[in-house]
Structures are given as structure tokens and as C-alpha cells.
Amino acid sequence: xxxxxxxxxxxxxxxxxxxxxxxxxxxxxxxxxxxxxxxxxxxxxxxxxxxxxxxxxxxxxxxxxxxxxxxxxxxxxxxxxxxxxxxxxxxxxxxxxxxxxxxxxxxxxxxxxxxxxxxxxxxxxxxxxxxxxxxxxxxxxxxxxxxxxxxxxxxxxxxxxxxxxxxxxxxxxxxxxxxxxxxxxxxxxxxxxxxxxxxxxxxxxxxxxxxxxxxxxxxxxxxxxxxxxxxxxxxxxxxxxxxxxxxxxxxxxxxxxxxxxxxxxxxxxxxxxxxxxxxxxxxxxxxxxxxx
Length: 292
Fold this sequence. Notes:
Blueprint: E1 3-10, H1 15-24, E2 29-34, E3 54-61, H2 66-74, E4 86-90, H3 95-101, E5 106-108, E6 112-115, E7 127-130, H4 143-154, E8 161-165, H5 171-178, E9 183-188, H6 191-203, E10 210-214, E11 223-229, H7 232-237, H8 239-244, E12 246-258, H9 262-269, E13 273-275, E14 279-281, E15 284-291
Parallel strand pairs: 6-7, 8-9, 8-11, 9-10, 11-12
Antiparallel strand pairs: 1-3, 1-4, 2-3, 5-6, 12-15, 13-15, 14-15
């Protein structure tokens, strides 16, 4: 069945209200889209973060009286009678198949592959992590995750204890176990991340080797390697906690950092770590070092 797509430019203060008005006027689905490619970062649990310029997009059945819908929206004070909009027909597709076709096996470094479950594994002899896109952050497609995976692929993780600070989907911890780590401790502030990490670890047959904790329940433990794929502001705020989790002689690997923030993070942690060269991918950076 063909569809009609109504697109309205809004701002963070109005976008949700515009979306609710679309739903109230017959929209079968409402989505929010970045209008100007503005960077947006990982929200806290329960927090909805929208872009400074946000498209609100409503999907309507083709037989919907769109002039009536537009007239109804125009009566609202939030938009006004002469608001700008785009109305376009949308080709009917198998959207689930379309979504699945966008995800392919991805290689990180020499040995490591991240593979969605519906795709064939390119190299059965490689280190393959089976991971499907889901609610929790981290599938390998983002530069910050990619930078961390590449670091681990090049490292010797054999029999190491790895702490994944901000574990999200569990991708880094699962990859560490597949690369030879003996034990992984995953920590996150979001209960959904804990559930997703355990589920993904079970699917990869390493569920018995990963320990998962909400941040307030995490034990006092040190790792040979600490991975922290979080935000620069959090890495600054929790610097003493993050640094203390790394053993003397161990490695700290941080990402979730914009390239123009990397030198500040490097300088901040240099009091305890011998810092390595920053790695850059796109507009994101990886900062790492060995604890003295």
C-alpha cells in the first residue's frame, strides 16, 4: 500500500507536540530526523534528546484527506496557519527487509568481525561476534565503537581481565572474550544495557564469562584493560573512578570523544598514564595509555 509522508521542520521544544498532533490526526507512525547533521550524543536513561533543527515526519495512508490534516495542524498556535511543510508520496516497501539489508558483516583490524545473525559469516576461521542492532548503543557501525574494536584486535587479550565501562550492547566485552580475555566486567547506568549485554553474550556462548553491574552496584575491581566508550564530559567527571579501575601496567582505552576534545582528555589522564598517540576516525577520537 502506498503512503504519504508529511515533514515539518521544528525545534526541540515543539517537536514532540507536533508529533502528537500528527498522531492525533491519523498518522500511522511519527519519527524525528536531524535536519542539519548536528552531532547528538547518548542520552541518559529515560531522556529524549532532539536536535536544534528537527524534522517531524508523519506517515499517513494514501487515502487520508491531507488538506484536512494540514488545516487541523494549522489551527494550533504552535504552528500557525501558514506553517511550512513538505508532503510527498512514499513508495511501499518491505521495510523490515529494507532495514535488515542495511547491515552487513564488518571487519575490524585483522581478525575481528561483527556479523548480524541473518548474514553468512564471511570467514568462519576469524573471530566472529554475532550481534544484531537493538535498543542498546553499540553495534560497530559508529566510529567510537570501531576505534575500540580495532585497538582490541591489535592487542593481546589472552587471559586478561577486561572492564567495559559503559557496556551498552556488550559489544566490546563480548569481542574481548572472543579475542581471548579470561573475564569481562561490564558496567552501565542503564538497566536496558545490562539486559542487552547479557542476552548478546549468551548468543555468543560467552554468557558465563561476563559479569554485569549497574554502576551503583559495581564491585571494587581492577582490570588489565579498561575500555571506556562514553562521552568526554563523563570521562572528565569520573576520571578518578575510571583511572582507579586500571591496574598498574594495564591499559586504558577511551572513546566517545570528538577529535577536538582528544588532547584535553589525553592531558587530563597523563598524570597517571603514559599516553599513546590519538587515533582519529571521522570526527571521533580514541585516546589510550598505559598506567604507570
